[in-house]
Every structure is written in structure tokens, then in C-alpha cells.
Design brief:
about 110 residues, mainly alpha, 4 helices, about 75% helix, Negative regulator of flagellin synthesis, bacterial flagellum biogenesis, FlgM_C
């Protein structure tokens, strides 16, 4: 019985071609799935109006130096005109309360 060597080589080549085609199809499928997945997976964030307002107020507070210059100017003017009255009893109570908070909580 004679064996056709040319036919065996041809069969092997056909099998290799089929494997290559299958690998190419798999790679194309993987790339297509990856591109579809990238397009489909998009994160989104929505900020509530309260959070937006809080953000604006926080920014405004951080940019502020904490001094109400209008109030300071009014008090300076009232002192210079002799119109600023000090409630000494209330001032004394607040000083005592302040010192008790500082020194009383050791």
C-alpha cells in the first residue's frame, strides 16, 4: 500500500489554516466585545441642588477671612461718636462663662 506524502502535507496545511482562521475570529470577537464594553460602561454622577449650594457656600467661606468688615466699620464709627454702649453685666457673664469653659474642663 502506497502512502501519498504530498496529500499528508496538504492535510496538515489545511488544518493549520483552519486553526489560524479560528484564532483570528476569536481575536476579532474579543476586540469587538472590548470596544462594545468600553462604549457601554460609562459612569455618571449627579449632584443634588443642596450639595451644589453647600459647595458654593464652602468655597465662599474658604475665600473669606472671617471678618465682617461692614460691622467692624459701624462699631468703629459708633465708638468714635460716643454712641457705642457696652453692657458691662453681659460682658462680665460672658467672660466668666468663657473662663469656666477653658479652665473648668481640664
Amino acid at each position: 500500500m502506497a502512502i501519498n506524502i504530498n496529500n499528508l502535507q496538504n492535510t496538515t496545511q489545511v488544518k493549520n489554516d483552519k486553526v489560524e482562521q479560528q484564532l483570528q475570529r476569536q481575536q476579532a470577537t474579543v476586540q469587538q466585545n472590548a470596544s462594545q464594553g468600553a462604549n457601554q460602561k460609562q459612569d455618571s454622577v449627579s449632584i443634588t441642588p443642596q450639595a451644589q449650594q453647600f459647595s458654593k457656600l464652602t468655597e465662599k467661606a474658604s475665600n473669606s477671612n472671617g471678618i465682617d468688615q461692614d460691622k467692624v466699620d459701624k462699631i468703629k464709627q459708633a465708638i468714635s461718636e460716643g454712641k457705642y454702649k457696652i453692657n458691662v453685666e453681659q460682658l462680665a457673664r460672658r467672660i466668666v462663662h468663657f473662663e469656666s469653659e477653658i479652665f473648668g474642663k481640664k
